[in-house]
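User: For this week's homework, look closely at the record that follows, marking any run of repeated tokens, and judge whether sequence predicts the tokens.
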Amino acid sequence: MDNTSADLPFYYNEASYQFAYGEEHFLVKISPSYREVKVQVIQQPSNRLLSLLDLKRVEKFEIIADKKDHSSVLLTVVNDDSLQTIELDFKPRFKLIFKEHFTG
């Protein structure tokens, strides 16, 4: 399968996004058909890793805010007996909130 094919729908491709806010540089990779999401945050100019998420069972990827001064997404991971939510704020500063809710 060609992961960069323009002929395939978005669902079957891998999308990569790179962007920066201040000293924080972000790399976001989304593979919808595999339900994988990877988010890496690097602090510049020191090149220090601030955060790395490498998720394999993402059910939902929701854009919560996409404004000039605030942007965030909400990821939902479903397991057999729990539901995990990961809220990521990209601006004005990086923030990660991880919650687990038992369903069983």
